[in-house]
Amino acid sequence: MFNVEKSFTGTIIGAEPLEPKQKAAPDGAFDVGLHIQDDEGASDWWRGEISERMGTGNAAGKTQYEMTMGSLARIGFKGDDLTTLAEQLMGQKIPCNVKKSTSQGKDYYNLNIGGAFIEPIGMDEMKRRMERTKSLCSAGASANVFAAKEPASAATGTATASAKFDPFKKK
Fold first, then answer.
1. For residues 141 and 128, what is the distance between their CA atoms, to the nearest angstrom?
2. Which residues contact 71 (CB under 8 A, 6 or more apart)?
3. What is the rounded distance in angstroms from the CA atom of residue 54 to the CA atom of residue 61?
4. Per-position DSSP letters for 77-138, written without gaps between them
5. What is the rounded distance in angstroms from the CA atom of residue 83 to the CA atom of residue 16?
C-alpha cells in the first residue's frame, strides 16, 4: 500500500476483474484491477469501474467505462477486449502517481496510472492555442476571458472602461 504522495514508474504485477469498489455502482458493473509495484517493492491496486454510471466534476460528460478505457489506453492497452488485459499489460512499466486526499478527517492515498488527469497536447497544439489566445487578447474579442472587468462605480452604477489584459506581456 502506498502511503505517501509520489510519482514513479510502476510495474504491473497483476491484472484481473474485481467486484466494484463503489457501492453506487449499477447492477452488472465490475472493476478492472491492476496490481502495481514500485521499485522499492511497495504495491497497491489501481481500480477502474466498468459501468454506464456517469462521472462527476470535470468528468461529468463521461461514463465510468469511458474513463477507465481511456486510462488503460494511456498505458498501452489496445482495443476493448478486457479478456486480454493481463496478456497485454503484465510486466509493463507505466507512469504512476499517488495523490493524497482527506475525507471526514481520514487520509487516503489514490493511485493514478498513465499520467491520469494529464492530457498532453504537444508543442504544435500548444503553439496553435497560444496564437489564438494572443489574437483574442490583442483584438479585444468579447469572448476574451482575459479581458479585465473593473467593478461598477458605486456613485454612477456604471462600469468603467478597462485596459486589456495580456497574459503574454512581460512585466
1. 17
2. 48, 113, 114, 116
3. 7
4. --SS-GGGHHHHHTT-EEEEEEEEEEETTEEEEEEEETTTT----HHHHHHHHHHHHHHHHH
5. 9
Are 18 and 30 in contact, with CB atoms under 8 Å apart? yes
Global pTM reads 0.65
CB 96 within 8 A of CB 36: yes
In whole angstroms, give the CA distance from residue 165 to residue 145.
9
CB of 76 closer than 8 Å to CB of 46: no
pLDDT for the residue numbered 154: 44
> Cα(124)–Cα(113) distance, rounded to whole angstroms?
25
pLDDT tens string 100-138: 999 999 999 999 998 644 556 778 888 888 888 888 887
Q: Cell numbers 454506464 correspond to what residue?
A: 52
Contact predicate 77/24, CB 8 Å: no
How many Å is the Cα radius of gyration of the chain?
A: 22
